[in-house]
Task: inverse folding
């Protein structure tokens, strides 16, 4: 358990730092001809990155959880012949 | 420096002593009880013992104010935020609030910070430095209090889990506050740490007292307040990662805000051996406890030990985050 969950925590931390840096470096300075359009693009891109981060986090956890359950069932079945 | 050290010592020892004395008293006086569903004997345990934390915190912060009146505004903002959230918890313990009303009311606990102006709209970000969020920051404050308050509340499911993990979180914030030269915040951390260690004595396995929402919301909102007042927002998010993960998995697997009592398919089961096992029902919410138990049944204390390991890892990452902030900003 520990290694898998610790791996998820480290992934979430690294991706959060990288995401913050990417938003600050590329999204915030984004300038379009119209200032309103610039604002909309910045918020949309930032929100999109956050949504992607949350989706990846959820996907990894769900996959890890159900694979662990499946492996446990297989181990139990093997142990009892 | 001597005054600060004296402040830490007084805040910590007062919180420790007063909470230690107050918990059995308030648990007995309130008369509210709950069943410990993770034991085969199903013992009935006094709930709302967490009110003792609020009592201990009030006395400890008042003592700190006498010693350092210049930090009065910050102390007041912190204490009233904690007490408002604790009040919401008391109402929830007595008459269950709805799953939407509770986060909304806990968000209101940020009002003292907002009204007393004890936040900075220039938070520190790792690798980036100080950023300006003059307009946005006040709108983020309700989330800064409501999210940790409810995340801590959702983690308070096993004996000793809440005070033990939160003590590690507060200890980390205390170290970071000292690194950031936020000594008033460090004193508030010391007071809360004292309260939590005293409460752990009663709440550890086998629990003699439950904290109730009164305790867990007080502690969670206090962590949010410390993060905002001490300019440690990102550090607090990182150290709270196991709590946030637990809340996030629960919310996304159910698809909405929910109350424990609403859940038909329980995420964990109690076996005849007294061990806890993960439910294999696809409709049950995926909580951190269930993920830990996916690899096989464990005793309650072993699950709490896993919580502690995860919190220690996230606290280490929080310290690295603080270091990444310090290389960009000279605080």
Result:
């Amino acid at each position: 358990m520990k290694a898998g969950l610790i791996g998820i925590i480290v992934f979430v931390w690294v991706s959060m730092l990288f995401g913050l840096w990417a938003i600050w470096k590329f999204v915030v300075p984004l300038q379009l001809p119209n200032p309103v359009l610039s604002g909309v693009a910045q918020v949309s891109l930032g929100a999109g990155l956050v949504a992607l981060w949350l989706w990846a986090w959820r996907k990894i956890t769900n996959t890890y959880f159900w694979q662990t359950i499946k492996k446990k069932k297989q181990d139990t079945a093997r142990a009892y012949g | 420096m001597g005054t600060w050290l004296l402040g830490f010592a007084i805040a910590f020892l007062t919180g420790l002593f007063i909470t230690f004395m107050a918990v059995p008293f308030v648990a007995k006086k309130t008369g509210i009880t709950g069943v410990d569903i993770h034991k085969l004997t199903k013992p009935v345990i006094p709930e709302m013992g967490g009110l003792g934390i609020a009592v201990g915190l009030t006395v400890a912060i008042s003592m700190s104010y006498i010693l350092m009146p210049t930090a009065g505004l910050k102390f007041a903002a912190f204490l009233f935020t904690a007490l408002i959230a604790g009040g919401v918890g008391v109402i929830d313990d007595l008459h269950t609030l709805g799953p939407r009303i509770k986060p909304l009311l806990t968000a209101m606990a940020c009002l003292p910070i907002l009204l007393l102006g004890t936040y900075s709209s220039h938070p520190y970000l790792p690798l980036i430095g100080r950023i300006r969020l003059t307009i946005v920051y006040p709108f983020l404050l309700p989330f800064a209090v409501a999210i940790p308050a409810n995340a801590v509340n959702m983690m308070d499911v096993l004996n000793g889990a809440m005070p033990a993990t939160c003590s590690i979180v507060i200890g980390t914030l205390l170290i970071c506050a000292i690194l950031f030269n936020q000594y008033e915040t460090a004193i508030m951390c010391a007071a809360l740490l004292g309260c939590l260690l005293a409460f752990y004595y009663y709440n550890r396995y086998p629990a003699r007292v439950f904290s109730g929402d009164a305790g867990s919301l007080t502690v969670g909102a206090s962590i949010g307040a410390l993060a905002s007042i001490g300019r440690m927002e990102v550090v607090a998010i990182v150290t709270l990662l196991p709590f946030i993960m637990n809340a996030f998995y629960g919310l996304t697997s159910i698809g909405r805000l929910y109350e424990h009592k609403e859940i038909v398919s329980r995420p964990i089961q109690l076996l005849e051996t007294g061990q806890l096992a993960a439910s294999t029902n696809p409709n049950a919410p995926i909580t951190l406890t269930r993920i830990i138990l996916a690899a096989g049944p464990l005793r309650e204390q072993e699950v709490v030990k896993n919580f502690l390991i995860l919190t220690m890892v996230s606290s280490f990452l929080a310290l690295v985050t603080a270091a990444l902030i310090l290389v960009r900003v000279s605080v």
The mean pLDDT of chain A is 90. The radius of gyration of chain A is 20 Å. The longest helix of chain A spans residues 35-79. Residues 3 and 72 of chain A are 16 Å apart (CA to CA).
